[in-house]
Amino acid sequence: MVVYRHRKQLSRLSPGSSPWLFPITLTCILITTCLITAYLAGLAKGSIITRTQSHNPTLSHDGRCTNPPTRREWRTLTTREQRIYINAALRLQIKPSILTGNGTLNDDLVHIHQLIGSASHKSASFLPWHRAFLHVYETILKTHCEYPRDMTLPYWNWELDWSSLATSSIFSDETGFGGDGNESYPLGPGDGRCVTTGPFAYSKRLWFEGKVKPHCMGRRFVYFGTNEGNAINGSWYAPEVMGRVRRAPDYQTFREMLEGTVHNGLHWSIRGDFASFSAANDPIFWLHHGQLDRLWWEWQARDMEVRSTEYWGVPVETDWPGATTWSLEDDMTFGDLWGNITVSEVMRTDEGILCYRY
Ligand SMILES: [Cu+2]
Questions:
Q1: CATH code (residue 333)
Q2: 257, 243 in Cβ contact below 8 A?
Q3: Ligand 1 mean position, distance from CA 14 (Å)
Q4: In this structure, are 34 and 103 located in the same domain?
């Protein structure tokens, strides 16, 4: 469009036109053509969602996060707020993919997690990568799924449910995310059975463990260790255990304790889609990781001066720039869905690209 208009102007130039008009118009055409070409190249690669879209209404006009909004526990949301969140999450499941052209935007996020999984787990980057991934998810909900800009991501504080996780109201069909898989269905990916109740009943998923494998989103609660069904081991989340995690003296110890049984345990026990690198297939993924991010935030807040730059431990082994060591300046990748985010950009949640608190 723009190029065409400039060309018309060019063709209207008569020999008597001012002599400097011609070079200026030519420059305009070149710049416009370059911009359009760059945009189309971006579309082709799928990197449509860029960081400039991550507008946050609570940032003041000078870009400072003056009044960070609070991320809240799922059950403190009003019924209306819960409905708004669920509706946005459901929209994510029908918006067409922009990354692979296969499936939905939801599948795109799942794909990113399984793609980067080996680099963003069991290493120092576990916490910042997932914090950044939550930011990517939240932004996509707001830019593509009508999630209101003044709302924040909810989290699930499973500590409140540790004595009976499987009966937590988070799995309610009416006010939660649906429950266990349907026992009359055959075992699917990850030994899960199709979830047939709640807002995500019969949700179709494209990926499983890096492969295209269309299936119904599945769960199969299992008490880890005894293999008893319809139960989830809550001892990992008992107050005394979580107290030890909270008192971890340094980043590496904290990250290891949090990622180990605390993070993994729930993946193993909900099973199905959740027990895999394609765990983001289960919408509970975002609330689980919200809680883990909250625990990191709390741990940092105990000594923010020191802990907002404390980042070390196990280097990532594969697919990572500078993979033999770790640095606050490491780039974390989100495939072609998003630009790179450096670790230092997410060490605080009230600065730079992030603006929230717990
Ligand atoms: Cu993960």
A1: 1.10.1280.10
A2: no
A3: 63
A4: no
Longest dimension (CA), the chain: 90
**How many angstroms separate the alpha carbon of residue 333 from the centre of ligand 1?**
13
In angstroms, what is the span from residue 264 Cα to ligand 1's centroid?
9
Residues of the domain holding 16: 4-39
Query: Residue 292: what residue type?
Result: L
Angle (CA) 268-272-275 rounded to 5° is 35
Copy the structure tokens of residue 98: 């922009």
* C-alpha–C-alpha distance, residues 252 and 243, integer Å: 17
Q: What is the DSSP letter of 157?
A: -
Would you write out the chain's pLDDT as a tens digit for each of its 358 residues? 222 222 222 222 233 333 344 444 444 455 454 444 444 444 334 445 655 444 455 555 566 898 999 999 999 999 999 999 999 999 999 999 999 999 999 999 999 999 988 778 888 999 999 999 999 999 999 999 999 999 999 999 999 999 999 999 999 999 999 999 999 999 999 999 999 999 999 999 999 999 999 999 999 999 988 889 999 999 999 999 999 999 999 999 999 999 999 999 999 999 999 999 999 999 999 999 999 999 999 999 999 999 999 999 887 654 455 556 788 998 899 989 998 999 999 999 999 999 999 9
CA of 10 to the centre of ligand 1 (A): 54
Per the rule left: phi > 0, alpha: psi between -120 and 50, beta: everything else, 109 is alpha
Closest alpha carbon to 272 in 261, 284, 288, 289: 284
Residue 329, both tokens? 């300046």
In angstroms, the CA 179 to CA 247 distance is: 33
- Domain count for the chain: 2
Distance from the CA of 279 to the center of ligand 1, in angstroms? 7
Shared-domain flag, residues 216 and 255: yes
- Determine, yes or no, domain membership for 357: no
- The rounded distance, in Å, linking the Cα atoms of 351 and 309 is 13
DSSP state, 175?
A: T
